[in-house]
């Protein structure tokens, strides 16, 4: 339940979104809905319209800097509608933590700072690795006699073996993150929401589905038993 002083931060990443007001209005509604469940006081509201790209994203967000300064001045908690409105960059999340300002995301209020840091780090790492993993897998498949682009029984076994290897490696990298989510008691659907909130890529990129979370959990259980 929300209580105390809050300062809201809303962000849209394009001028078009900002002009329409739809993205910002949806975020404001989410914050209001969340805060109405408790004893709260919204003492400030800041809106940012920018891309936020680059290594030092905080310097590109004057409204966020102002919101953090206001939070420190009045002892308020920074509140955002969605976790991905801040950043998927581990560098940025680390900087936010160092600001000593408490923050809460309406779509993932149970997350703690460690959870967010782990997810941001994994999302950033995976974003950089997706392209390289594809190239590596194709190179290994070719070295094992797979003729790329050709279907048929001769290509089936090497392809299956390579896909199995890649799936196992992906599952192993995810294990600490899934263990942490299970320790917090998240349901499988809650895990889907948590992974998508901070942009952790699904096995083939993109957003997670319930079936993908279930396959990862089943694979982790199978590997643990073997």
Give the beta-strand count: 4
Classify the helix fraction into a percent range. 55-70%
Mean pLDDT: 75
Question: Termini separation (Å)?
Answer: 43 Å
What radius of gyration results from the CA coordinates? 21 Å
Describe this protein with a few key phrases:
8 helices; elongated; Rossmann fold; 12% strand; 226 residues; 58% helix; alpha/beta
Please describe what this structure looks like.
There is one protein chain. The chain is α/β, with parallel strands linked by helices and 226 residues long. It folds into two domains: 3-105, Rossmann fold (3-Layer(aba) Sandwich); 125-225, no CATH class. 58% of the residues lie in helices and 12% in strands. It has a four-stranded parallel β-sheet, with helices on both faces. Helix 5 runs antiparallel to helix 6 and helix 6 (153-183) packs across helix 8 (210-225). The protein starts with a strand and ends with a helix. The model is unreliable at 148-156 (pLDDT under 50).
């Amino acid at each position: 339940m929300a209580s105390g002083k809050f300062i809201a931060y809303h962000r849209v990443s394009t001028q078009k979104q900002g002009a329409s007001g739809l993205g910002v209005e949806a975020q404001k509604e989410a914050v209001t809905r969340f805060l109405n469940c408790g004893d709260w006081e919204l003492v400030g509201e800041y809106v940012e319209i920018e891309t936020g790209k680059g290594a030092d994203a905080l310097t590109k967000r004057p409204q966020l800097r102002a919101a953090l300064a206001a939070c420190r001045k009045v002892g308020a908690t920074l509140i955002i509608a969605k976790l991905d409105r801040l950043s998927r960059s581990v560098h940025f999340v680390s900087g936010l933590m160092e600001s000593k300002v408490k923050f809460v995301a309406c779509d993932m209020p149970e997350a703690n700072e460690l959870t967010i840091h782990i997810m941001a780090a994994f999302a950033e790492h995976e974003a950089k690795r997706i392209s390289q993993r594809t190239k590596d897998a194709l190179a290994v498949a070719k070295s094992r006699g797979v003729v790329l682009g050709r279907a048929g029984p001769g290509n089936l076994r090497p392809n299956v073996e390579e896909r199995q290897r890649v799936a196992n490696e992906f599952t192993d990298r995810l294990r600490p993150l899934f263990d942490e989510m299970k320790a917090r008691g998240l349901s499988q659907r809650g895990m889907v929401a948590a992974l998508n909130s901070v942009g952790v890529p699904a096995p083939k990129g993109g957003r997670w589905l319930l079936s993908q979370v279930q396959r990862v959990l089943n694979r982790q259980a199978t590997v643990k038993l073997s």
